[in-house]
Amino acid sequence: MFSIIQAAGWPIWPLILCSIVALTLIIERLSSLRAARVAPAKLLEEVVSVTRAHLPAADVVNKLADNSILGNVLAQGLRVVIADPRITEEVLRNTFENAGRAAVHKMERFMNTLGTIASAAPLLGLLGTVIGMIEIFGSQAPSGGTNPAMLAHGISIALYNTAFGLIVAIPSLMFYRYFRGQIDAYTLEMEQASERMVPHLMRFSVKKPVPTNAG
Questions:
Q1: Which is nearest to 140 in space by CA: 128, 161, 154?
Q2: Please, what is the Cα angle at 115 between 37 and 163, to 5 degrees?
Q3: In this model, does residue 214 exceed pLDDT 50?
Q4: What are phi and psi of 57, to 5 degrees?
Q5: 168 vs 156: CA distance, rounded Å
Q6: 146 three-state secondary structure
Q7: How far apart are CA 52 and CA 138, in angstroms?
């Protein structure tokens, strides 16, 4: 492996750095975007069941918020209903929307970095190819002869950097698309959960009295 790095020259080092960062981000996202940490399968049904007769206590809401990202979204809705019994449907929907935006932002953490690596790695490989071509042209002596060692080194730089750039870019792009699909699916699931919770929680809202005209 070290001999390959030596043959690829200094342009390989940015690609090695990109590969380390990409691998770290992929492992982190695989762990963070698991269904158990984002949207457990039966969480919504459990929340609806617990709140069917009355609103839960504050400690139960806090445990729900710590359960998962979806749990935190649902907990925000519960908190605002508990804090303001006269809450309107519009305010409750806005609360869920704001919590949903924060949840999507959390799920999209590091996604821009991974996408940047997927786009930049082939360009870094191309840079190595250009530097290798310069080495190849530099191996041509003014008298018409060729320096075999410099020629071989230039070819090695060009080929190794091109190959390594693709090796880094292709998995990064595949996982970027995969994670993006997961985030879209989770976002839709949270939107549907919020839509179901709005009428369910509005049952606990105290209706404002309608003013009547005296006389």
A1: 154
A2: 120
A3: no
A4: -75, 165
A5: 18
A6: strand
A7: 78
Q: Is the Cβ–Cβ distance between 180 and 111 less than 8 Å? A: yes
Pick from 7, 17, 30: nearest CA to 168: 17
Place of tokens 């993006």: 180
Residue 180 corresponds to which tokens in the numbers above? 């993006």
- pLDDT, tens digit (0-9, with 9 covering 90-100), for 108-153: 999 999 999 999 999 998 888 888 888 777 766 666 566 677 777 7
Burial class (CB in 10 A: 0-12, 13-18, 19+), 104: middle
Helix and strand tally (H, E) in the chain? 9, 0
Torsion of CA 194, 196, 198, 203, to 10 degrees: -150
Going from the C-alpha of 74 to that of each of 144, 187, 190, the distances in angstroms are: 76, 13, 9
- State residue 53's pLDDT score: 85
Looking up tokens 């492996």 gives 1
Q: How far apart are CA 99 and CA 187, in angstroms?
A: 11
CA 44 to chain centre: 23
